[in-house]
Design brief:
Helix content: 55-70%
Number of domains: 1
Radius of gyration: 9 Å
Structural class: mainly alpha
Distance between the termini: 6 Å
Number of strands: 0
Largest sheet: none
Strand content: under 5%
Mean pLDDT: 97
């Protein structure tokens, strides 16, 4: 689940991440919460 979440979030561009309220540096932390 962690790897899949990181992979999917990394596919998003900066604008898409911003629209979700996520910064690139938050991806790993968010993925850890997903498991």
């Amino acid at each position: 689940m962690y790897n899949e979440t990181v992979r999917e979030l990394n596919k998003l561009n900066a604008r898409q991440l911003s629209d979700l309220g996520i910064s690139r540096g938050d991806i790993e932390r968010i993925a850890r919460k997903a498991i």
